[in-house]
Write a structure and sequence with these properties.
The complex is a heterodimer of chains A (259) and B (322). Chain A has 12 helices and 7 strands. Chain A is of the alpha/beta class. In chain A, helix 10 packs across helix 12. Classes of the chains: A alpha/beta (259), B alpha+beta (322).
């Protein structure tokens, strides 16, 4: 029997799910290999659990989603976090540092619907996650590769290299050395260094590496005359819900005190 | 040995004559960097380089390489049959290939993928006119080249003095070249000097506190090893097709600077801390490899210094060990 695969979404832009649909030439092969039983963007069919593999896009940002994600976990053998929102909060987690009442008023005016909103967090803040497919959006071949590994019964090995590895494979000019404002050395690789290869500095969308040397990095950025606000903005964009962000502010202060 | 002389005005014609039989790779400009790229004419070649940011070893040992593909029980490992000429490879980088030969051709196991590319490629080396700020080939003894090249070009005024290094090289000589007794000697002087006495004492400094201190600046981005012309560590990765019956096996370059490099089954990491990884690269280059093969695994090209975003300089670190 083919594995039952369900794709769910929480708070997100649907971009990662769309990226799955962009795997056009492989869609028939995917449909032959697995049974897609739940995929809002791809099929009207909705099947109840249990599922072999659940792929979840989006951050947990509302009370209802906490219940939903726990239900998904209980009904799935394997749970995969799909994209930056699900892996570590995504851009919407920027609002975690602001007053929710003020934001709601700004957006909805005086009649604010009942939102039950929470700080936007990655799904692993609530449940155990078996694998992470990173990026904003994800890389479609990264997705395909990880799916195949699950299909042959392998637990995929997470790519824990910094973006720099593939960037150097592509013989690129180092944007971090040129500009300083590139997050390649601090960010999970696996994207093929698509941004620096196309002359854009790394935005850090795949999230902050486990093995990162933030303090040394901040020191280099400051040497390149990048101001504190810019450094904060760079790191905030995709790592706001990362616990290490608190430490990051401390580090920035430390580097400032030392220099 | 009498050599040949090629007028610069005939260089374009020489490249044209090579094109009939070979693909030509030479230094080309990529924004602010120099890299080796495929060229179709002499005009595309960048001559103003001291050395390229990325090493020509990549042409023999690609960062990602398909070892074979398979379909059910059929395995296809047909290797590419393209004959190539690399023009403009610096003497230090030829030395790097000689070191890679030690590892991949002469040691216990022969790497047939590497051998095929070595056999299919002719090297036209180009002597350096001057040393770059991070070059320390003089200390490593790799500024001079006695073997390993097919032709050696040396710029002298409006001509190149050409030395023949092999029979294959001799065959490239055509009517554009004239015999000469002239010699072209370039005395290179590197400002950067590695204290070889310190290098020979490195083992005594294995527990030195300096490694920890210096590694605090390291981002573990792996630029040093990826751009190193003698780093050949790789991982093997299988990429099956969705039908599971076919797929391919790749080898992908990896780096001792990464934490996952020394991870074994069960999740134990042998070199977990940054200072251990930091020290390992330097010790492998200058101590362990020397013990095993009686040659250093470093040619003093300085790429690990040039390409380090943190400005880490192996030479000054070793020189200042006390």
């Amino acid at each position: 029997m083919k594995p039952r695969v369900a794709i769910f979404d929480m708070t997100s832009c649907d971009g990662c799910q769309t990226t799955i649909l962009n795997l056009e030439e492989y869609l028939v092969d995917i449909a032959n290999a697995v049974d897609i039983v739940n995929f809002r963007l791809g099929t009207e069919k909705v099947s109840p659990g249990p599922y072999d593999i659940s792929i979840v896009e989006g951050s947990i940002s509302r009370q209802e989603e906490v219940k939903k994600i726990k239900w998904i976990r209980e009904n799935s053998k394997t749970v995969i976090a799909l994209g930056a929102c699900a892996t570590h909060g995504g851009p919407q987690a920027l609002s975690n540092r602001l007053n929710k009442k003020d934001i709601h008023k700004e957006i909805y005016g005086n009649i604010v619907p009942k939102l039950n909103s929470l700080d936007a967090k990655g799904i692993d803040q609530y449940i155990k996650v078996d694998h992470y497919i990173r990026g904003c959006p994800i890389d479609k071949f990264d997705f395909l590769n990880i799916l195949k590994q699950f299909l042959i019964g392998k637990i995929p090995k997470e790519n824990t290299n910094p973006v720099c590895v593939e960037c150097r494979f592509n013989e690129n000019v180092c944007q971090f050395m040129e500009l300083g404002a590139c997050l390649g050395p601090f960010t999970y690789g696996g994207c093929g260094a698509i941004c620096p290869t196309n002359n854009l500095p790394c935005d850090g969308c795949r999230g902050a590496l486990d093995d990162l040397n933030l303090e040394a990095g901040i020191r280099i950025m400051k040497k390149k005359n990048i101001g504190d606000d810019k450094i904060k903005a760079l790191f905030r964009k995709y790592v706001p819900s990362d616990k290490r962000y608190e430490k990051f502010e401390e580090m920035l202060k430390n580097v400032n005190n030392k220099t | 040995m009498s050599g040949y002389i090629l007028k610069k005005e005939d260089f374009g014609k020489f490249i044209e004559s090579l094109k009939e039989e070979y693909e030509i790779f030479a230094p080309v400009k990529k924004k602010t960097y120099f890299v080796f790229g495929k060229v179709d004419s002499a005009e595309e070649i960048a001559f103003e380089f001291i050395n390229t940011e990325y090493s020509p070893t990549n042409l023999f040992f690609p960062k990602k390489e398909v070892l074979f593909d398979y379909n059910n029980t059929k395995i296809n490992n047909k290797k590419e049959d393209i004959t190539r000429v690399i023009f403009g490879i610096r003497p230090c980088d030829v030395h790097a290939l000689i070191i890679m030969d030690t590892l991949f051709l002469e040691a216990n196991f022969e790497d047939t993928y590497y051998r095929k590319k070595r056999e299919n490629t002719l090297l036209i080396s180009l002597k350096c006119n001057s040393a770059g700020e991070n070059c320390f080939c003089e200390s490593m003894g790799t500024d001079k080249l006695e073997r390993g090249y097919d032709l050696m070009f040396c710029e002298q005024g409006g001509s190149y003095v050409v030395d023949i290094g092999s029979q294959r090289g001799q065959k490239l000589i055509n009517e554009l070249f004239k015999s000469t007794d002239e010699e072209c000697i370039k005395e290179l002087h590197c400002n950067k000097k590695l204290d070889m006495q310190k290098v020979n004492q490195l083992e005594q400094f294995a527990e030195h506190e300096g490694w920890k201190k210096e590694s605090e600046a390291c981002l573990s981005c792996a630029a040093c090893t990826i751009t190193c012309p003698t780093c050949g560590c790789f991982d093997v990765v299988d990429v099956p097709n969705l039908n599971m019956a076919a797929g391919k096996r790749l080898r992908v370059n990896t780096s001792c600077q990464l934490k996952n490099f020394s991870e074994v089954a069960g999740g134990h990491v042998f070199r977990e801390t940054r200072d251990k990884r930091f020290k390992h690269r330097i010790y492998h280059k200058l101590v362990y490899f020397k013990k095993q093969f009686d040659t250093f695994m470093c040619v003093g090209c300085g790429r690990c210094i040039t390409n380090c975003p943190a400005g880490i300089d192996m030479v000054s670190i070793i020189n200042s060990l006390k």
